[in-house]
Amino acid sequence: MIWSDNSWSASLSAQYHGEVDGIASAYPKTLSDGSAAIGDDVTKLDATWYLDGQVSYNFDQFSTRVTLGVDNLLDEDPPLFTDSFANDFDPSYRTWGSQFWYARVSSRF
Questions:
Q1: Residue range 87-108, pLDDT digits in tens
Q2: What strand order describes the sheet that includes 8-17?
Q3: In a domain, 18, yes or no
Q4: Distance between CA 79 and CA 42 in Å, rounded?
Q5: Do the domain assignments include residue 72?
Q6: Residue 31 forms part of a structural domain
Q7: CA 27 to CA 40: how far, in whole Å?
Q8: Helix/strand/coil for 62
Q9: Mean pLDDT, residues 45-55
Q10: Domain that holds residue 9
């Protein structure tokens, strides 16, 4: 979603990861249709939403824009998956504790 008014602008975006089955096995025996085979340990991973937002102001007389933003606005952690190989989460979500604030200044000349 994007909003703008004269020199101000703001945006908010959402990313949704649906509930999935995590297969916890050193050598998963997942079948070609994506289902777990007998002997695979299956863990349900909850659905998760991530919201990112930013606000910008244009200084037209200087051809400059200042932006402040945040990734993972609500500071949501990915679902815990302790049986994964190297992490406590599925890395397709985001890194653990991934809230990130930033400031950016861009100029054209």
A1: 666 666 665 667 899 999 999 9
A2: 2-5, 8-17, 48-59, 64-71, 100-107
A3: yes
A4: 14
A5: yes
A6: no
A7: 9
A8: helix
A9: 90
A10: 2-23+52-107
Buried/exposed 72-89: b ≥16 CB within 10 Å, e otherwise: bbeebbbbebeebeeeeb
- Model confidence at 35, pLDDT cuts 50, 70, 90, reads low
The residues with which 67 forms a beta bridge, in sequence order, are 56, 104
- What is residue 34's DSSP assignment? S
Structural domains in the chain (count) = 1
What is residue 22's three-state secondary structure? Answer: strand
pTM of this structure: 0.69
CA–CA gap between residue 5 and residue 83 (Å, rounded): 48
Q: Is residue 29 part of a domain?
A: no
* Distance in angstroms (rounded) separating the CA atoms of residues 76 and 36: 28
- Whether residue 34 contacts residue 17, with contact meaning beta carbons closer than 8 Å, is answered with no
